[in-house]
Design a protein that fits this description.
InterPro entries: Nucleotide-diphossugar_trans (IPR029044). This protein is mostly helical. Helix content is 57%, strand content 0%. The protein has 2 domains: 31 residues, no CATH class; 115 residues, no CATH class. It is built from 8 helices and no strands.
């Protein structure tokens, strides 16, 4: 199937290449099922791994490209439940990951540059719509508070959260 459809790992991509490969391969599968449980985990214990280092492309990769939404629509799997799951993923994984990325030890950005990126994240229209959709379906108080922080007036809180979380690792 892979050779037949010319599916290879993307050239020049060193982070997320396995995921893009799997998504493209999945396109040519004859059947699929949506499982609402995380079964694929990375171990991040290697301090030299790409997952532990600063990635200047993370915002563009996580926030600007709605890859899962595009593929789920392409495959005819997109519905309200998937939309909510993708919105929650964008808020809790992508946004949080991008903020924490700015506080990795090898990130040489100034405080002003980090602040600006966090502002760009919370002002991004996809993040705003994802936060609103997630908030409508969220029942946990802590998560509701976090989702309500995803707005322009809360950049300071998100900045501090990123800094505090970076001290834990």
């Amino acid at each position: 199937m892979l050779e037949e459809n010319g599916i290879t790992f993307p050239e020049g991509k060193s982070l997320g290449e396995d995921w893009l490969f799997n998504m493209e391969a999945f396109t040519y599968c004859t059947s699929a099922f949506y499982i609402d449980q995380p079964y694929y985990h990375y171990r991040k214990s290697n301090n030299t791994s790409l997952m532990r280092r600063y990635n200047p492309e993370l915002f563009d990769s996580y926030i600007n490209h709605n890859t899962l939404e595009k593929y789920s629509k392409r495959w005819g799997l997109y519905n309200e439940k998937v939309a909510v799951d993708l919105a929650r993923r964008k808020c809790f994984i992508a946004v949080n990951g991008c903020i924490q990325n700015e506080f990795k030890p090898d990130c040489k950005k100034s405080v002003r540059e980090k602040w600006q990126l966090i502002s760009n994240i919370v002002n991004h229209p996809d993040v705003q719509s994802a936060a609103q959709l997630s908030l409508q379906h969220e029942h946990h108080l802590q998560k509701k508070i976090y989702l309500k922080m995803l707005k322009p007036k809360a950049v300071l809180g998100l900045f501090l959260m990123g800094k505090i979380l970076s001290l834990r690792s």
